[in-house]
């Protein structure tokens, strides 16, 4: 029986983790973010189950290693929050969830797009006050317009299939074209054309050095004044400061964001009684055509269930000495 501590565990996620891991292991679930201030709470636990907003830099990893941690298994696909080189140097194995339901994120991206287009947040706020006017609530059809998909992996392809169902023209950009998307009629173009021609642009690329701020001031300037921009992938894909300036100029029909570059320490927490010190995020909140959610696109029973099951498999693989697609840093070979 291994000692496991899981960080950033939500109320809805806890019973799933307990069913998957609690019977065979000594599991402790915490709602804390794992960082330099909380790393000592993992002392004596051989496995750390991290979340995407945890800070696993060299200092934190050293604290974990000194406390007896052998494996860090992240309950997410992204892992830019983990210093893999430091983990390797410290003898820590690292795994992740390389894939889960792509429909959870793709469908949520469409939920944001439809809500922004049809002014649903404003409409709901009005009707709660028994104001049933239609003034200022006019949207537009997506049918016949152009959907641009930046990143056409599993999630981007799922988004494209929904767009095809709406009867939209499909443009895509990726390092390697997806044959499934091409079969839908998607035309692959360079980024400049993607930004220029899309009526709806949805971001589904991983965050790597080449995609950092891929949507910057120049890209935003190329977009149509009445375009809709959706980001359910990684906050760092979008230059939020440049987005504020674009919106201040009265451009873009609407924006839906489920991620934000500086979301760590903010998203997943109740900040309602605190002063918001992030001026960019606070300014984005003031625009009526911007809808921000708290990194919840993945948060369905189906996707979280897959994430938990894969995490349990990663732990079993670690003890069996197996590696696979989820392995980021393998278990050190015995001397």
TrEMBL record:
<dbReference type="GO" id="GO:0008720">
    <property type="term" value="F:D-lactate dehydrogenase (NAD+) activity"/>
</dbReference>
<protein>
    <submittedName>
        <fullName>2-hydroxyacid dehydrogenase</fullName>
    </submittedName>
</protein>
<dbReference type="Pfam" id="PF00389">
    <property type="entry name" value="2-Hacid_dh"/>
</dbReference>
<dbReference type="InterPro" id="IPR029752">
    <property type="entry name" value="D-isomer_DH_CS1"/>
</dbReference>
<keyword id="KW-0560">Oxidoreductase</keyword>
<dbReference type="InterPro" id="IPR006139">
    <property type="entry name" value="D-isomer_2_OHA_DH_cat_dom"/>
</dbReference>
<dbReference type="Pfam" id="PF02826">
    <property type="entry name" value="2-Hacid_dh_C"/>
</dbReference>
<feature type="domain" description="D-isomer specific 2-hydroxyacid dehydrogenase catalytic">
    <location>
        <begin position="10"/>
        <end position="326"/>
    </location>
</feature>
<dbReference type="InterPro" id="IPR036291">
    <property type="entry name" value="NAD(P)-bd_dom_sf"/>
</dbReference>
<dbReference type="InterPro" id="IPR058205">
    <property type="entry name" value="D-LDH-like"/>
</dbReference>
<comment type="similarity">
    <text>Belongs to the D-isomer specific 2-hydroxyacid dehydrogenase family.</text>
</comment>
<dbReference type="GO" id="GO:0051287">
    <property type="term" value="F:NAD binding"/>
</dbReference>
<feature type="domain" description="D-isomer specific 2-hydroxyacid dehydrogenase NAD-binding">
    <location>
        <begin position="111"/>
        <end position="297"/>
    </location>
</feature>
<keyword id="KW-0520">NAD</keyword>
<dbReference type="InterPro" id="IPR029753">
    <property type="entry name" value="D-isomer_DH_CS"/>
</dbReference>
<dbReference type="InterPro" id="IPR006140">
    <property type="entry name" value="D-isomer_DH_NAD-bd"/>
</dbReference>
């Amino acid at each position: 029986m291994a000692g496991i501590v899981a960080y950033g565990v939500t109320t809805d996620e806890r019973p799933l983790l307990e069913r998957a891991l609690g019977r065979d292991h000594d599991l402790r679930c915490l709602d804390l973010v794992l960082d330099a201030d909380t790393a000592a709470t993992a002392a004596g636990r051989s496995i750390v189950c991290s979340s995407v907003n945890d800070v696993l830099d060299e200092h934190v990893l050293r604290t974990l290693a000194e406390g007896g941690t052998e494996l860090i298994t992240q309950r997410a696909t992204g892992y830019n929050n983990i210093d893999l080189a430091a983990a390797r140097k410290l003898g820590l194995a690292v795994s992740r969830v390389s894939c889960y339901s792509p429909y959870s994120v793709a469908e949520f991206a469409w939920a944001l797009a439809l809500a922004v287009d049809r002014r649903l947040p404003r409409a709901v706020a009005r009707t709660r006050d028994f104001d049933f006017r239609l003034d200022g609530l006019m949207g537009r059809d997506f049918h016949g317009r152009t959907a641009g998909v930046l990143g056409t992996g599993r999630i981007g392809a799922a988004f494209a299939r929904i767009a095809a169902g709406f009867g939209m023209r499909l443009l895509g950009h990726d390092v390697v074209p997806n044959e499934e998307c091409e079969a839908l009629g998607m035309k692959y173009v360079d980024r400049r054309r993607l930004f220029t021609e899309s009526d709806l642009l949805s971001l589904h690329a991983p965050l790597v050095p080449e995609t950092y701020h891929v949507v910057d001031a120049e890209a935003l300037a190329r977009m149509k004044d009445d375009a809709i921009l959706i980001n359910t992938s990684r906050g760092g894909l979008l230059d939020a400061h440049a987005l504020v300036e674009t919106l201040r100029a009265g451009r873009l029909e609407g924006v839906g964001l489920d991620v934000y570059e500086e979301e760590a320490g903010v998203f997943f927490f109740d900040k309602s009684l605190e002063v918001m010190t992030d001026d960019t995020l606070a300014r984005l909140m003031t625009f009526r055509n911007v809808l921000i959610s708290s990194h919840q696109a993945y948060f369905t029973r189906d996707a979280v269930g897959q994430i938990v099951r894969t995490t349990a498999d990663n732990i079993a693989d670690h003890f069996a000495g197996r590696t696979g697609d989820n392995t980021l840093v393998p278990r050190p070979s015995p001397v």
